[in-house]
Amino acid sequence: MAGITQDWEPVVLRKKAPTAAARKDEKAVNAARRTGAEIETIKKSNAGTNKAAKSTATLNTRKLDEETESLSHEKVPSEMKKAIMQARMDKKLTQAQLAQFVPSVQMINEKPQTIQEYESGKAIPNQQIISKLEKALGAKLRGKK
Description:
0% strand; single chain; 7 helices; mainly alpha; 41% helix
């Protein structure tokens, strides 16, 4: 048993290393200065500016610029808006009256603004609303007459 010896060196248990945010803390930097540890300071080139937003055209913006296709929502065709106006005037209704028009069973129940958007051609066509208009006005607004 002459070859066995005990190791009496102290074992030091420490907490995990400080995170990046903790190392940048003012207290940690001052403590490092007091102990004489090296402190690295780096000046970031874009710090405090918004140069990333003003950068030159990126790949995505270039693709968008080169895009020739017109990407917009479909609007109410002029034939439909004229047909809605004509049918409404034939029934002697205002846009507000048509929006709240309640015949025995049929009910449009839409905002007057919706009717205005359809008649001005600004609305995005909704087949349910067009169907309600067709029933209330008694006129065919889609397809051939």
